[in-house]
Amino acid sequence: MIRIVVSACLLGFPVRHDGRDKKSEHPVLQRWLDEGRIVSACPEVLGGLTIPRPPAERIGDRIVTNGGVDVTDAFEKGARATAAQADAFNVRVAILKENSPSCGSSFVYDGTFSGARVPGEGVTAALLRTRGIAVFSDEQLDAAAEYVARLEREIAG
């Protein structure tokens, strides 16, 4: 069975910077939960950041809070911990929350704290990709489901 790491906030855990979740009601996620495929992870929490915490955005290769505090080390630690968790469960696919400085897979906020998005990826998404894990955003669940089905057909031979 293909295992999938999923951002904890998408599963309803209140781990975001504001202490809230971003629970997805997408049927693909529910099916994967029922099948026991999902490995939940929040890179920020795994990196030692608190809930709640100041919002942070990516500015170049650094992650900085809206108060100007550089939290890059915590984000990198969380990315490594998420990758280790993925390795432990032989994860092949990740579903991560778009726009996040950790989990954004196609877009991140631009560092101005204005809500403007720019093309880019978060620290965790980038690390997982370098390890051969296919990364999809929460906006690409149907494509991820097709990818997982294709992987399973290949394994079945």
Kindly summarize this structure in a few lines.
With 157 residues, the chain is α/β, with parallel strands linked by helices. It is built from five helices and eight strands. It is 34% helix and 21% strand.
Note down, in words, how this protein is organized.
It is a single chain. The protein has one domain. The protein contains 5 helices and 8 strands; from the N terminus they run βαβαββαβββαβα. The protein has helices spanning 27-35, 43-46, 72-88, 123-130, 141-156; strands at 3-7, 38-41, 56-59, 62-65, 91-96, 107-109, 117-119, 134-137. A hairpin with a 7-residue loop joins β6 (107-109) and β7. The two termini are 14 Å apart.
Keywords:
two-stranded antiparallel ribbon; four-stranded parallel β-sheet; globular; 5 helices; alpha/beta
